[in-house]
DNA sequence: GCGACAG
DNA sequence: ATCTTGTCGC
């Protein structure tokens, strides 16, 4: 069976990103986003995929919903999925989005009252080569407010892990401190955030959909007990737990 | 040409 | 993403 060459596939994907990008709303669309203390916000979601060691095709897709501001788990869904595309930096959404959307559909079907009012995504939003990362992609297709939170710096539009960048990181003294991620064009694509007092390494926050950068950063800070915001952390922990119990590693 | 490169 | 337990430090 023949398939499209990878460079042709990538051209199609770039085209789709440019197309969907037109739908991104980079501003607060919800009442709670403007309210003091995020009054009116009751449910925050997190999504993640975990893999088995030697297998990059089978994965556990996870969706968690936590109460706000308590950050207690209200809902957790684990589902084994089969990935159909490889990981290529800049095209993560084509690998993960279909399964994350499926998880949101299951929630809509089974517990619609628990639908999150905002979803934290493991990866970037506007902080992306073409300003349309996973958090934007999922946000647009699900039509939900989304925030991108990456644990590592993607080298984007002149933003690199240079001495200057490391120097800026060292200026982050306490939880909530930030510095902007500014593209060569001068546009601020996201912010590095010290998410907890204990962690020196920042997370990289960017707009996914239907939220402003300032609100995204303040909300990420408000949802972080440790370095990784709690909705994503719970999704990560629970998907790994699922793999441990259903696919125990073989010992020698 | 070489290296960098979210998860 | 994953390979991996204990260990050093606050």
TrEMBL record:
Its cofactor is Mg(2+). It is found in: Cytoplasm, Stress granule; Nucleus, Nucleolus. InterPro entries: Endonuclease-V. One of its GO terms (cellular component) is nucleolus. Monomer. Interacts with PABPC1; the interaction is RNA-dependent and stimulates ENDOV activity. PANTHER family: ENDONUCLEASE V (PTHR28511). Endoribonuclease that specifically cleaves inosine-containing RNAs: cleaves RNA at the second phosphodiester bond 3' to inosine. Active against both single-stranded and double-stranded RNAs. Has strong preference for single-stranded RNAs (ssRNAs) toward double-stranded RNAs (dsRNAs). Cleaves mRNAs and tRNAs containing inosine. Also able to cleave structure-specific dsRNA substrates containing the specific sites 5'-IIUI-3' and 5'-UIUU-3'. This is Endonuclease V.
């Amino acid at each position: 069976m023949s398939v499209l060459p990878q460079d042709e596939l990538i051209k199609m994907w770039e085209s789709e990103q440019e197309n969907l990008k037109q739908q991104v709303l980079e501003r607060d669309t919800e009442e709670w986003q403007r309210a003091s203390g995020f009054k009116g916000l009751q449910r925050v979601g997190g999504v993640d995929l975990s893999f088995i060691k030697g297998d990059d095709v089978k994965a556990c897709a996870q969706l968690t919903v936590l109460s706000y501001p308590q950050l207690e788990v209200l809902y957790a869904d684990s589902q084994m999925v089969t990935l159909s595309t490889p990981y290529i930096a800049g095209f993560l959404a084509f690998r993960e989005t279909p399964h994350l959307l499926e998880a949101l559909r299951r929630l809509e079907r089974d517990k619609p009252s628990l639908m999150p009012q905002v979803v934290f995504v493991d990866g970037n939003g506007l902080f992306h080569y073409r300003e349309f990362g996973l958090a934007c992609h999922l946000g647009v297709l699900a039509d939900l407010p989304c925030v991108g939170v990456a644990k590592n710096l993607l080298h984007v539009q002149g933003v690199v892990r240079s001495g200057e960048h490391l120097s800026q990181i060292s200026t982050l003294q306490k939880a909530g401190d930030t510095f902007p991620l500014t593209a060569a064009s001068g546009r601020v694509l996201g912010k590095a955030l010290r998410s907890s007092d204990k962690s020196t390494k920042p997370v990289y926050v960017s707009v996914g959909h239907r939220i402003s950068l300032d609100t995204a950063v303040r909300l990420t800070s408000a949802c972080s007990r440790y370095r990784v915001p709690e909705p994503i952390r719970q999704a990560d922990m629970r998907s790994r737990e699922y793999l441990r119990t259903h696919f125990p590693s073989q010992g020698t």
